[in-house]
Amino acid sequence: MVRRLRKTKKNQKYNYNRNRKRLDKQLKSTGPIRCLEIKNALDPRKKLSANIREMGLAFNVNRTIPVPNAKQNRIQLTRYVNGFLEEDAADVETSTEVKRPPPPKIHVAQQLEQEANEYVESRFRLPKGQVKFACRMIDAYGFNYKAMSRDRTNYEQDTWRQLRQKVRKFLSIPEQCTPYLEKKGWLDCDMDDPSDPRWKEYGTDDEEC
Question: Among its keywords, does the record have Nucleus (predicted)?
Answer without folding.
Answer: yes
